Amino acid sequence: MMRRVLGRLAASVGVVFGAVTLIFLILNWLPGDPAALIAGDAASPETVEQIRAQLNLDRPLWDQYRDCLIGITRGDLGRSYVTREPVATRLLAQFPATLSLTLSAGLIALVLGVTLGVLSARFHGRWPDQLIQLSALSVVSVPPFWLGLLAILCFSVYLGWLPVLGDGGFRADILPSTCLGLVVSVHFMRMVRSNVLDQLHEPYVTALRAKGLGQARVFYVHVLRNALIAAVTLLGVVIGELLSGAVVIETLFARQGLGRVAVEAISQKDLPVVQGAILLASITYVVVNLLVDVSYVWIDPRLRTDSLRGAR
Amino acid sequence: MTDVTRPPSIEGTQRHRERCAAPWLALCAALVAVACGSRAEPVKSSAATEASSSPRAGGELIFAFDGAAVSQFALDPHKSAFAPHHRVMRSVFDSLIVAQPDHQFGPWLAKSWEIAPDGLSYTFHLRDDVLFHDGTPFDAAAVKWNLDRIKDPKNALIALADIGTYDSSSVIDPHTVRVQFSRPYAPFLANLSKSSLGMVSPTAARKYGDEFPLHPVGTGPFKFKSLQPATEIVLERNAAYHWAPSGAAHTGPAWLERIVFKNVPEEATRMAVLQSGQAGAVDLIPPQNLASLRTSRDYHVVEGELLNQNYSLYLNVEREPWRDPRIREAFKLTLDLDAAVRTIYLGTQARAWSPLSPSIFGYDKTLEHSWRPDPARAAQLLDELGWKKGADGVRVRDGKRLTIVFLDTQGNREKRLDLITVLRRQLRDNGFDLRIDTQPAGLYLAKSASGDFDLLAGSLFAPDPDVLRRTHSGKVRTVTSVSRADDPELNQLLEDGCNQLDDEKRKQIYSRAQHLIVERGYGIPAYVLMYSVAAARGVEGIAIEQHGFPVFYDAWIHA
User: Fold this and answer.
1) The pTM is what?
2) How many CB pairs under 8 A join A and B?
3) How many domains does chain A have?
């Protein structure tokens, strides 16, 4: 077990390192001069040169890359080219907002998706199943942006139940995380539904039934448990979708967030900020996936014995 | 087993259809109701207490503004050219003088001023009772420090373009400063009244260094309190304030206790927060909402022209196919800007005729209605030039298609891409194939600076016709000189206009320059931006100053 986790950790460091290197190269390869961008429309070539020197952009690429890596290992992400603010401070200020949006959306997606998936499978082919399938199709077919606008109009302007603008309170999180979670919940719903339906044809189900176990017990205790493993795997995958979907939702609901900062920094070629945001996002991704891996063992006893055998 | 695998019955499908339609119908009904204006009563709306009651001190205003998708607030007036941030900074930083109607200037931090007969030096007599928010006295040394700060190339400040030929300042006595220019610089007073030459506290700028934009300190009616990156900026009343500019409705401190600027870039969300009472006022009202808000009893709207070089199309005359003035003429005659602007802005923004917005000094009215679209004449010109329509309707000459690449970065801010899309249709009918090339800001800047485009468009906020020099002069190319024109006659005019201190002569110079730009097809002006603010009833006194920026000094909220 321990070895398994350690192995995953080592691989995770590789993933993070790869992401940082890739984004460094891509941003340098893209045309556009950050110094010229900062200098603005009225700057003379001398001014631009001056800024380039200030930012160490006049040094060889390799030196810049080395400094960047050394900085990261020391926990120093550098300063933003544009605001000269320490990147770590800036990103950490945004991180809680992104984390709370992503986590609550993920939770909504998981709970809603699994519940609907189970219902859909339970009533396979009958009207609840069809209703769920059709709603799911409608939700994934509309852009999240439009869905968010409808929700704002309906629940904030017309009904006046929920605020749009964040004031630090929990109520302001409800609309954005539901909009984001709703779209992602469709993946869970479909995954759980098809898995449950598959499981029902497994020989063990027939065996359980032959032993005289009740329909509900077979379904909720045995079948569901097996079907949930895939849902947990999916959690590791959709975390990426949640992080990227957050960009749109953050803009629509005028929220803080890592996504907006990253998108803006990319367009300004604010390299340290982009690096920092990618680093944080990849760490989040890796940590979630690590947790997913570990939780398999908890959900599925078969893996526990496998790993014990492996450790021997 | 039978339960879960039963095939769908026809009956079941029908029943499901009926039931699933219900929530959608409810939602649609809700939307229709919203569109008709029957919505939950806004918290702050109080139509009963009309403007008859007198201003009241206190209260907090939540102002939702369009800060675009920009997450960094950089509140150093000398460093930023971003209009949305200047809308916040106008309340934090005061200027030496204030712009008044008809291109006049009134006292603000400077009580009076004299201009030397040679136009090379300005002497400002300053108020002696002004303090920065951090307690630093505002004096002649502070003015000198501000101007020298902008001039220093090491600081790389954007406001450098606003001080032109500034040479140095000398402190005559603690409250008198003389500002010296190397050559006469006519736009100086107009620029000085702009928020980008607002007075910054030297002590605070030294203390915070690079992070000053996150800790702005000025002398304005509101002090900076705090900010949340990307989402909000909080300002608090400056209780010591008693140096309001001439023309303000009251003296002493501002009425409002606090202003919370919320950055809400999405226009539909901005309208939603106004209508649900979550914001007392919002800016940049979308055209489709403006008409109904103007006539609504629950809201009132203030509008003001943003002094700027109008959003214009710039043809890259350094490149084919634009080298020949006749094809530029054909391009221009193909465009029906009246129809396009009316379609997109629903009459809320006026069609522009000159590169300058109408209230800028030297605006030439004779350009209005000076040309009309004439697609037939344009087609004839194109035929004469050898551009013949091909099989798909796009013109071709020597095997080359008439493809025009439009370079863009800002997306649909102010519905600009919608406008381009309408124009694209018109152009297509006459055989131009317009391609929209959308790039992130970095790449856009690289491409525009190196001239790698056929067509681009943009605006630039400025109070003086000298802005034309920044765009059209072939002599002072900067990284974003969007026009690639290098016309000796125009270059000379723009140079002369900058140095000419006689108003009449200056007007003539710029009149000629505006005609040249439009007639020779260097820039095709599109629309005049009216900046708009809508406030709920009960929020009074928000004004828009001469340059087109919101002023909250006289604003107040009903009890």
Assistant:
1) 0.79
2) 216
3) 2
